[in-house]
Automatic annotation (TrEMBL):
Molecular function terms from GO: endonuclease activity; nucleic acid binding; zinc ion binding
Residue ranges of every copy of the HNH nuclease domain listed in the record: 180-238
InterPro entries, per the entry: HNH, HNH_nuc
Naturally occurring in which organism (per UniProt): Ferrimonas marina
Membrane-spanning parts: none
Pfam name, any one: HNH
Name of the protein: 5-methylcytosine-specific restriction enzyme A
Domain of life the protein comes from: Bacteria
């Protein structure tokens, strides 16, 4: 069967019931003048996305989902002009845009409520698979969401590993690391250390772990650019920082043209 056809909703279900099914506590939906009909609470039922304790749920229109090269994805822009065609849309779009940005920067998986049908008779389906934000451009608002889970992560990704949490984004050294650059380096490496060639280890969430590294450190004026960032196994990363021959390692990474030489 066509993968997109399998995701086509076939029955009426409320956003309330599916948000609850996805794992949110929906008790606050009762807190309005019609507590016996929580599904109709206007504070929540018209939203395009919900967040609770790091779990993001978003609506996705079935007609806008695409399937290419085995990947199911959805692209849009919640700052575009079409958002202003209806009075309430800008507020809903801004809230969704904020959550999508957070999902991208913190590597949070999302659940998708897929919608189909005319206004007033929407059919909905909670996709059993997770989705993730594979691309988010903060300057334009362009976003792409893919069905499945993130394949590669680094030391800054917000990923649960047993009881430990690795924080993504900006380290306490004061230097910002662009998540788009790190993601691109991980995708380029495809799970293999760009120094020794060994495969990164598989985590409990099934992602392949490598560590992003600036060949010329940010503290020494190195650019936060793909040409200066490589993906390394933890051992090679430690060597790149602390080995007696770390200068040789840095030169080797550039000489191999795994990334463009810095001039």
């Amino acid at each position: 069967m066509d993968p997109l056809q399998q995701l086509k909703p076939t029955k009426y279900q409320t956003a309330y019931s599916l948000v609850a099914e996805a794992g949110h506590d929906v008790s606050d939906w009762n807190d309005y003048e019609r507590p016996t009909v929580p599904a109709a609470n206007p504070r929540y039922c018209y939203r395009w996305a919900w967040e609770q304790d790091g779990l993001i749920i978003m609506t996705v229109w079935h007609k806008n989902i695409r399937h290419k090269d085995g990947t199911i994805f959805y692209s849009n822009n919640y700052r575009a002009d079409w958002i202003h065609s209806t009075a309430n849309w800008p507020t809903r779009a801004a809230q969704r845009d904020t959550l999508l940005k957070r999902a991208f920067e913190e590597n949070l998986s999302c659940r998708a409520i897929i919608i189909d049908g005319p206004s007033g008779n929407h059919k909905r389906l909670l996709d059993p698979e997770s989705w993730f934000v594979s691309h988010y451009d903060d300057s334009t608002g362009d976003v792409t969401i893919k069905r499945g889970t993130q394949r590669f992560v680094d030391q800054f990704d917000a990923t649960e590993v047993s009881d430990a949490r690795i924080t993504r984004g900006t380290r306490n050294d004061g230097y910002h690391r662009d998540p788009k650059v790190r993601t691109a380096a991980l995708e380029r490496a495809q799970g293999f250390c760009e120094c020794c060639g060994t495969k990164g280890f598989r985590m409990e969430n099934n992602c392949i772990y490598l560590e992003s590294h600036h060949i010329i450190p940010l503290s020494e004026g190195g650019p936060d650019h793909l040409s200066n960032v490589v993906a390394l196994c933890p051992t090679c990363h430690m060597k790149a920082h602390f080995a007696a021959d770390k200068a040789v390692i840095a030169h080797s990474l550039q000489a191999r043209r795994l990334c463009s030489p810095i001039t």
